Amino acid sequence: MWLSLRATMFSVIFTLLSVNSAYAQQSTSGELSKSQAASRASSAENGRVLKIEQTSTKYRVKVLKKSGRVVSVEVDKRSGKVKKSKDKG
Question: Is residue 54 part of a domain?
Answer without folding.
Answer: yes
